[in-house]
Amino acid sequence: MNELIWFSVPGAIVLVALSLSGGDVLPKDGTALVGLAPVVGFTIHQLFRVVFEAAGGWHWKHRSVVTEIASAYGLRERHDAFLVWELAFYSNDIPEPFRAHDRGAWHYTLSFLSCTLAAVLSGMLLAFLPPGVCVLNLQSTLLATALLFGIKAYQTFRVLNRQEVALFTTHRETFNTVRDRLFPPPSGPK
Fold first, then answer.
1. How many Å apart are CA 160 and CA 147, to the nearest integer?
2. CA atoms of 159 and 180, how far apart (whole Å)
3. Does the predicted model carry a pTM greater than 0.90?
4. Residue of 105, 22, 106 lying closest to 60 (CA atoms)
5. CA-CA distance, 62 to 154, in Å (whole number)?
């Protein structure tokens, strides 16, 4: 149910903007709009996820813990550093409350960014309507909405980055064990 609600938010942003624009694109029945919100929102969220993955996804260059792991272990490939992170993160040595918190923070960050994308796309769709006071006011509101969700996503992401690096620092032995199993140090001459 929680995911249904989160998927509905970006969908609602788009549907409310289109319905307030005065266009005849959407059904007039409120029940149909409520039913469309999760579908539209899920589609927007998946569109965002495609962009997110294309930009580097979970081992994106701005994810501090992946950079720290790559640097600490001399790994040239970010996806190798991410693999060390994932295997250590989901080990029994990392407290479940931290893992749940981290996953939740990522969920909020990505959801806020999906809402940002929904507001931007809605504003772009409204650009095709004849200019009028209603459309311009709605576009201004959508810009403010995009900024609000974008800032919130950035704030959550910054805190999340610090927490993940702190976990790497405090649980270094767990990460060392995973690294040694994945990328054993070369053995010397016999």
1. 20
2. 29
3. no
4. 106
5. 11
